[in-house]
Design brief:
Elements (H helix, E strand, L loop, with lengths): L1 H7 L1 H26 L3 H12 L5 H13 L4 H14 L6 H20 L1 H4 L3 H13 L6 H26 L5 H8 L4 H13 L1
Helix pairs in contact: 1-2, 2-3, 2-4, 3-5, 4-5, 5-8, 8-9
C-alpha cells in the first residue's frame, strides 16, 4: 500500500500528502466510512492523519452517529473502541464514561449467552478486546466459558453443514437424534434401521 511506502520517506510523504493524498483522502474516507464503518477503514483514517492528509478527530466526529447507531452490538463495540483509539478527542469524557458503562452491561449480558450473540469465535474475541480497550475488565472464567460455548456452536453448525452435503443425509433424522428425546427409543430406532 502507498502508505507503507510513504512511511519510509518523510520528504516523499510530505509531498504526496500535501499535493495528492490531501485532496482525495477526505472524500474517499467519507464515502467509505459513512455507509459501512469498518475497523480497516478506521485504521486507514489513523494512517492518513499520521501523514497529515486529514483530521482524524473531524472524521470520527462525523461518522460517530453511524457507529453509535449500529444495530449489532457485537460489531458496534469494536468499532467504537477503534474510533476512540484513533481520535480520543472526538468523545467527551462524559460520553466515553457512558459508553464504557454500556459496554460493561452488554459484556455481562452477551457473555452469559455467547452462542446466541456471536456467530464466530473471532467476533467474541473482537468484542472482548474492545471491552478491554475501553477499560472494562473481562473476567477470565466467564470469558473462557463463553469462548467454549461459541466454539461448540460453530462446530455444531459446521457439522450440520457438512452433513447436508452428504447425499445420504436426512435432516429430519439428524434433528431427531440431535434433539434428544428418549435416548433408548432413538438407539432402538437406529438398530432397527441397521437391521433393515
Amino acid at each position: 500500500m502507498i502508505l507503507d511506502y510513504l512511511d519510509t520517506s518523510r520528504e516523499l510523504s510530505d509531498l504526496v500528502t500535501r499535493d495528492w493524498l490531501g485532496k482525495h483522502a477526505r472524500a474517499w474516507v467519507r464515502r467509505s466510512l459513512t455507509d459501512v464503518p469498518t475497523t480497516q477503514g478506521l485504521r486507514l483514517v489513523r494512517r492518513l492523519a499520521e501523514h497529515g492528509a486529514l483530521d482524524s478527530t473531524g472524521v470520527i466526529t462525523e461518522i460517530k452517529p453511524n457507529l453509535l447507531g449500529l444495530s449489532s452490538r457485537a460489531n458496534r463495540w469494536p468499532l467504537i473502541a477503534e474510533a476512540h483509539d484513533v481520535a480520543p478527542a472526538a468523545f467527551s469524557d462524559s460520553e466515553w464514561s457512558s459508553l464504557r458503562n454500556e459496554i460493561a452491561k452488554d459484556l455481562e449480558e452477551m457473555l452469559t449467552d455467547a452462542a446466541g450473540y456471536f456467530e464466530e469465535v473471532s467476533e467474541l474475541e473482537d468484542f472482548a478486546n474492545a471491552a478491554e480497550q475501553m477499560g472494562v475488565d473481562v473476567e477470565g472464567e466467564i470469558y473462557a466459558t463463553a469462548f467454549e460455548e461459541v466454539e461448540i456452536a460453530v462446530a455444531e453448525r459446521e457439522g450440520e453443514e457438512e452433513s447436508r452435503d452428504d447425499p445420504d443425509y436426512d435432516g429430519e433424522e439428524f434433528r431427531e437424534i440431535r434433539g434428544g428425546g428418549n435416548e433408548d427409543a432413538d438407539i432402538d430406532a437406529m438398530f432397527d434401521r441397521l437391521l433393515d
